[in-house]
Amino acid sequence: MLKIIKGMKKGSKPEVIEPPPGPNAPSDVTVNHASRSAVPHPQLTNVKSQAIGRTQSPQPCVVEVTPLLKDVPVSERHVLFIKKVNMCAVSFDFGDVLKKVKEKEIKRQNLQELVDLVQSGSSKMNEIMQQEMVNMISMNIFRSLPPQAFENTGAIDGDPEEDEMYLEPSWPHLQLVYELLLRYVVSSDTDTKVAKRFIDHSFVLNFLDLFDSEDPREREYLKTILHRVYGKFMVHRPFIRKAITNIFYRFIFETERHPGLGELLEILGSIINGFAVPMKEEHKLFLVRALIPLHKAKFINYYHQQLSYCITQFVEKDYKLADAVIRGLLKYWPVTNCTKEILFLGELEEILDATQPAEFQRCMVPLFQQVGRCINSPNFQVAERALFWWNNEHIVDLIAQNRHVILPIIFAPLEHNIRSHWNQAINGLAGNVRKLFFEMDADLFQECNNQFIEKEAMVNHVLEQRELTWKKLEAIASGLGEDDMIMVN
What we know:
Elements (H helix, E strand, L loop, with lengths): L14 E2 L27 H11 L19 H15 L12 H20 L2 E2 L2 H15 L7 H5 L17 H16 L5 H4 L5 H9 L6 H17 L4 H19 L5 H13 L7 H11 L12 H14 L4 H10 L6 H16 L3 H19 L4 H8 L5 H9 L1 H18 L3 H17 L1 H38 L10
Parallel strand pairs: 1-2
Protein name: Serine/threonine protein phosphatase 2A regulatory subunit
GO molecular function, one term: protein phosphatase regulator activity
Keywords: Cytoplasm
């Protein structure tokens, strides 16, 4: 797990590294990337196309041993810093471990030195140095990701857990690049007014694309850095939320595959926690249009914990959203997936913990109709999870206040469970709930019991009449000759 950097320890006053005097201070390599030109409030899709169009490859650079920055005079550090940054922009083939071993080690050492420099805060970077460093970071992390396992095998409906995990072979360098970016973002020396020129909308879009990586180590860094960027660059917050929303839309309506969905939802959990009350209409629409539809995915178990936290945060912020959330979950209720049913029941219990009586009354009828079906589920885990609701004091209080509506709905499923469910433990749980209702209101319980007996008698009467009709038809058919024919409407 990555540690969140809360502050930077400083020793003496940082030295400001300035460019050497003279008309030109050229670097050995010029690295251009999409993030170089700030995009003034474009549409999100336009930013993406512009970012791709402006990306260029670095010029050739000789990777060689150089002295440490601390060992050279201050007047020479600017040129040396740029040279080290340019050497770090060179990519290597990690598919062959014996290829360019020396150059790979030099790059690793240079990256580590840059990380230590930014972390210590001993030397303050000027704008040119920051620009070149972010350029180098972009050249390393923004790349074409390999096809995911299901794309290679064609098993679109296969379980992601069965897919072979891809680990980035260049991680020894990539980790240090991410660490450098993290230290740069969290550093108290980083001025957002300057840094936003490099970490712009194009940078953010390309960065979000990396969440599609199958390497969990990379996604962990991405999560931490994006969270820090969101916290520090207030100007980017609406854009980041919109870009994440578009990722969710693509997942919901097109792919239903995204390795980094859990990490994105984890970031959103913190963001939602910071929403001001009363909540903006924009945020409510995000809940209804993006978060709730995420429940329809087949493999929701890979991100359900984070999704459930986000949903619950909304209800805790604004209890009036409980009705919309509960009805949304009922809309996407799984019909043939018992694992998802168990997850839904658990999430609903958390939502009901934050639900007020007035909102509960709006959705209690369809809610407990579904709970009744779960109680009668042949899958004992689904039935057990539904019956466990009666161990929650807040839910029991809500049920008690509305028992005249809920007990008639739930009485028949309870009786059928007690009489015919194959699992004895479930029979016992249903019996306990039945007893709780009896102690809650004996008169209402007896009234529901009488109605249940009457309905059962009517059902049995209909079955007997149907059986009698069939016997008459069989008798008539057997008494007729082979050439005779009857027609029954």
